[in-house]
Write a structure and sequence with these properties.
Layout (H helix, E strand, L loop, with lengths): L3 H27 L4 H21 L2 H18 L7 H22 L9 H11 L6 H13 L11 H12 L3 E9 L6 H15 L1 E6 L2 H5 L6 E8 L3 H9 L4 E9 L4 H21 L1 H8 L3 H12 L12 H28 L2 H25 E3 L1 H4 L2 H12 L2 E7 L4 E3 H22 L3 H6 L5 E11 L2 E8 L6 H10 L5 H4 L4 H5 L23 H10 L3 E7 L3 E9 L4 E9 L2 E6 L3 E8 L4 E3 L2 E6 L2 E7 H4 L11 E9 L2 E7 L1 E9 L1 E2 L12 E4 L5 E4 L2 H4 L2
């Protein structure tokens, strides 16, 4: 029986136990004498130790064993809980998380944990370790590029390298390390690849590109590039990307693989032998344990029902959703045929099929929905550490963690939230003495809230700090050329606050590990808008700030209003539409060289989609115009179309790399009659 058979379960359960450790350690800091919390942490550590030993991950088992000794001392009241002790235990949990991530990324889970183990041993003996120095050493070690790891190439990749060398091209292995304070690692990886693809052909990345996009790596990664450029030139170009700590470029050839092949073969046989020796132990360990049986009996005694769930690989759900999307397209085609033939029995059958597929759609989409707590769970620990680094007192309140979002959105929303929360702590919450002098409590509050509203999920980050200084933001915007003096005089307070999302904008007086690098909020805005969402900010100086994020529930199947422009069909998402209307040409006004209309007492700009999308004109307009009123935050516009077709649920198909950077058209859909309708991105039109 192969170890890999249990690897996925091991990774998932390890992450659950580590998250439990993080949560309960934060509770323990507030209630250091609560034995229930201590027992929960001990149970998670003990289970993780047993699982790690069974799977052969010795460094994991070694560290959890020492952590278990300290927790046992706390249980027996020979060791007292203190912030310094918890700092060390948190460092241990960080190392454990890094090792589990390494295993999940295909690594061996090995890590130098000697410093943390030594500190835990000192605590066990009653001594006080130097936590501050240890934290710096751990951070420095994490920032070091892992260039010693060999890149493994398959037969096809080796053939490509060999042929390229024969044609006079160079093959380089480029080891890249990001700075330890880099917030949006995926964005930096994208920028590095963009640079490299302009000077050559990227044939491999380690970890794979999917893991880099999901930020499943520490700070370093490796890229294999075929190019005719010199290594020094490549290094200079990559180093121009922000937040790059180090770049090492080394040349390789096909001759370098000969010795590696023999070494790999020997290592493979060694692993296979070790695996076969552990077969019996593994079967015993994965059987139901007495502890699990006792927990089951306890649940029955307390009336708690056992959770009837199974784990399903997300790729299988993606395949299922893709198949269902095809079914939705065919359903639309059947509805079209049914209406044309006007056959009652066919219409009844199609209606029944529509109801069933509607129910099936809800089930499939709900299967992909994940509670946002999977993202929120990381923030209490982050806020605790950041507050200590900034020497501030901060209380984080989380509301609505059970709110569910599509897995695709969940995977992307984490980093923007990290930056917004860090921004609130650094720029928003004042130092305790300043808060006290201003009549506030010394402890600041940051509220992280999520809730559903219609077809959207809203996430709000609110703090009771100093708020945003209108004059300071406007001064900085004028200095950096974001706005002109003429425009600045016409801006409302809210419009001024929105300027902080401009590229490179920062009001920080000095650069720190938290902020002031001039990157972040612009990337946050772009990331959220790429998800079809919107982000806004409001503030009252001296009282606090509120960042609000609006996100779609799902990104695949959307409700739209189909409209006609000349002989072409377009789909406008219902989530952006306020209402539709018919207006007379004589109702059109002019303001600042822009055609506008009066919509319920508000002046709304008029956008002619046929002009924006350069649609060929076959028919002239009549005296009446059909308009779709759309909104993005407080901005509104009236889209002029030729006719309304009706509402429909459609499958959004992205253009991908085929048609990149098409203005305001993120994708298309196939209608019931086989025609293709382009999806209109209202957020892009209202920028």
């Amino acid at each position: 029986m192969e170890l890999n058979q249990y690897l996925e379960v091991f990774i998932e359960e390890s992450k659950e136990h580590l998250q439990s450790c993080n949560d309960h350690l934060l509770e323990l800091e507030k209630s250091p004498n609560d034995m229930t919390i201590i027992n929960e942490i001990f149970r998670s550590a003990h289970t993780l130790k047993g699982m790690s030993a069974t799977m052969g991950y010795d460094d994991l088992a070694k560290l959890t064993h020492q952590m278990e000794n300290v927790l046992d001392g706390i249980r027996n009241q020979t060791i007292s809980v203190s912030p310094e002790l918890l700092d060390v235990v948190f460092l241990a949990v960080d190392d454990l998380e890094a090792m589990v991530e390494s295993i999940a990324s295909g690594g061996d889970g090995k890590r130098d944990v000697s410093k943390v183990v030594d500190m835990l041993k000192m605590i066990e003996k009653g001594n006080k370790p130097n936590v501050a120095n240890a934290q710096k050493e751990v951070a420095a070690a994490a920032a070091e590029p892992k260039t010693e790891k060999q890149v493994v190439y398959d037969e096809f990749e080796r053939t490509v390298i060999e042929q390229s060398n024969e044609q006079g091209f160079h093959t380089y292995e480029i080891a890249i390390s990001l700075r330890s304070d880099c917030l949006l690692k995926a964005a930096r990886v994208y920028m590095v690849f963009e640079v490299l693809e302009k000077i050559g052909e990227v044939i491999k990345s380690t970890p794979p590109i999917e893991q880099l996009e999901e930020e499943q790596f520490d700070q370093a990664f490796m890229v294999t590039l075929i190019s005719n450029e010199e290594s020094s030139d490549i290094e200079k170009k990559v180093m121009k990307v922000s937040e790059i700590e180090r770049v090492e470029v080394s040349s390789i050839s096909i001759d370098d693989f000969n010795m590696e092949s023999q070494s790999d073969l020997q290592e493979s046989k060694k692993v296979e032998l070790e695996s076969s020796e552990n077969k019996v132990v593994l079967v015993d360990k994965t059987a139901p344990t007495k502890q699990k049986q006792n927990e089951h009996n306890q649940n029955q005694a307390t009336g708690k029902a056992a959770s009837k769930t199974i784990r399903v690989n997300i790729e299988r759900l993606d395949i299922l959703l893709n198949l269902f999307e095809e079914l939705v397209i065919d359903r639309g085609r059947l509805e079209q045929i049914s209406s044309e033939l006007n056959n009652q029995e066919l219409q009844e059958t199609v209606d029944r099929m529509s109801r069933i597929t509607g129910d099936l759609q809800n089930i499939i989409l709900n299967m992909r929905m994940v509670p946002i707590e999977t993202v929120f769970n990381r923030f209490p620990r982050m806020v605790r550490q950041l507050a200590r680094d900034l020497e501030k007192k901060v209380n984080l309140e989380i509301i609505g963690a059970e709110t569910e979002l599509d897995r695709t959105v969940i995977d992307e929303i984490g980093d923007p939230l990290v930056h917004l929360i860090r921004n609130s702590l650094d720029h928003g919450i004042e130092m305790p003495e300043i808060r006290k002098a201003n009549g506030k409590s010394e402890e600041g509050t940051v509220v992280l809230k999520a809730y559903h509203s219609g077809n959207h999920v809203f996430i709000e980050i609110e703090d009771d700090g100093a708020g945003i200084s209108r004059d300071r933001v406007l001064k900085k915007a004028l200095e950096s050329g974001v706005v002109t003096e003429q425009i600045a005089s016409t801006l409302s307070d809210k419009q001024v606050y929105e300027l902080i999302f401009a590229s490179g904008f920062s009001t920080a007086a000095q650069i720190s590990n938290v902020s002031g690098r001039g990157v972040g909020l612009d990337v946050v805005k772009n990331t959220i808008e790429n998800l079809g969402g919107d982000v806004s900010v409001d503030s009252i100086e001296g009282k606090g700030s509120l960042f609000s994020i609006q996100l779609p529930l799902t990104l695949s199947i959307i409700s739209v209003m189909l409209v006609e422009i000349q002989k072409e069909k377009y789909a406008v998402p219902l989530s952006s539409i306020i209402e539709t209307a018919i207006i007379k040409k004589e109702d059109i006004l002019n303001a600042h060289n822009q055609k506008v209309i009066d919509f319920r007492g508000k002046i709304v700009p008029l956008l002619f989609l046929k002009d924006l999308f350069e649609v060929p004109v076959y028919e002239e307009e009549n005296e009446f115009l059909s308009v779709v009123i759309v909104r993005k935050g407080e901005k509104m516009a009236a889209l002029v179309v030729d006719a309304f077709v009706g509402q429909q649920e459609v499958v959004l198909k992205s253009f991908g790399n085929y048609l990149p950077n098409v203005f305001a058209i993120p994708g298309a859909t196939i209608l019931g009659d086989g025609q293709v309708a382009l999806i209109v991105d209202c957020n892009a039109l209202l920028k």
